[in-house]
Amino acid sequence: MPTRPKPKPAAIHPHLESVLFTEAQIKRRVRSIAQELKSTYGDGEFTIVSLINGAIMFTADLMREIDNPVRLDCIRTSSYGEKTKSVGTPQVVASLTLDIRNRHVLIIDDILDTGKTMKLVAGLVQKLHPASLRTCVLLDKVGRREVEFKADFVGFKIPDKFVIGYGLDFAERYRNLPCVGVLDPARIKSPA
Predict the structure, then answer these.
(1) CA distance 117 to 123
(2) End-to-end CA separation in angstroms for the chain
(3) What is the rounded distance in angstroms from the CA atom of residue 78 to the CA atom of residue 89?
(4) Which of 11, 29, 154, 162 has the fewest beta carbons closer than 10 A?
(5) Are the beta carbons of 72 and 50 closer than 8 angstroms?
(6) Predicted TM-score (pTM) above 0.85
(7) DSSP type of residue 166
């Protein structure tokens, strides 16, 4: 009987230095986070507040794994621009439209980095008097924390590397990659 050739590993995007998490690893972790949410919320309704643009893919995939009744709203913030480091104090560009008073709220973001954005948004949401407030991030880069903040649900802890893919960008590029990887340092100097 002839032996089958081993499948070739999938080629990685040429602008990636390395892949931290494959599409399959992300899907498995998203499913397990959904189970953690089920343990926390039971069958009850909660409101998801997604920080866009970065958390859009994570939020969409996570919502598909949740069978609870959920409401969705989005907040748009700005903190990076075309840089690889946060450019100071994040700004809320567009805020909530749903009434969240006395409702259970889950804020979802792609990455917890300096902590400034999540602290700002959590403070803004808290002022609207939710019944409860929890936070969920796909990635936690603890080594970059500048303000104290700990997410309630974390997909993966990562080293202090600039990552792209699965919603994360550099100068609004690479969000569509199905994996999360480290951006090739040569691309940081020339994003085109």
Answers:
(1) 10
(2) 50
(3) 9
(4) 11
(5) yes
(6) yes
(7) T
Q: Which residue is it, tokens 């919320």? A: 41
Reading the block at residue 184, the tokens are 């090739």
Catalytic residue among 61, 110, 113, 140: 113
Give the mean model confidence (pLDDT) for residues 61-74. 97
Q: Top-level CATH class of 18-81+91-183?
A: alpha beta
**Can you give the C-alpha Rg of the chain in angstroms?**
18
Compute the C-alpha angle 69/176/28, nearest 5°. Answer: 55
Q: Which residue is associated with the tokens 């621009």?
A: 81
Confidence of residue 28 (pLDDT cuts 50, 70, 90): very high
Annotated catalytic residue 43 = no
pLDDT at 151 over 70: yes
| C-beta of residue 55 within 8 angstroms of C-beta of residue 72 | no
